[in-house]
Amino acid sequence: MIDTAALLVMAMLAGAAPSLAQDAFDAKTVRVIDALNCRLTAPEYNGFAFSISGEDGIGAS
Fold first, then answer.
1. Angle value at C-alpha 37, between 42 and 15, nearest 5 degrees
2. Interacting residues of 58 by C-beta distance below 8 A, sequence separation 6+
3. Overall pTM surpassing 0.70 (yes/no)
4. Among the listed residues 21, 26, 22, 23, the one whose alpha carbon sits nearest the alpha carbon of residue 47
5. Structural domain contains residue 44
6. How far apart are CA 52 and CA 41, in angstroms?
7. Residue 9 located in a structural domain
8. What's the confidence (pLDDT) of residue 30?
9. Which of 29, 46, 47, 53 has its CA 20 to 30 A from that of 5?
10. Which domain holds residue 43?
């Protein structure tokens, strides 16, 4: 059985395809309050979420 975390990761990966037309996004510049208040686009939010959850991401420091 697939757990909730695995479903969340799969859902985030489905919408995480970067657009070539967008500028480079640096997750380190995101304010948490902006992420919580839905002020990010879906790709920006996904990049931010992945950056804080990885072993060597923002959350690890």
1. 15
2. 27, 28, 51, 52
3. no
4. 26
5. yes
6. 17
7. no
8. 84
9. 29
10. 31-61
pLDDT of residue 60: 56
- pLDDT tens profile 19-59: 544 567 787 888 888 888 888 888 888 888 888 877 666 66
Show the tokens assigned to 40.
């990010």
**Domain count across the chain:** 1
Site of tokens 């060597």: 56
The tens digit of pLDDT for each residue in 9-19 reads 777 666 655 55
Closest among 47, 1, 51 to 25, alpha carbons compared: 47
User: Does residue 49 sit within a domain?
Assistant: yes
Which two structure tokens, joined as six digits, stand for 12? 């985030």
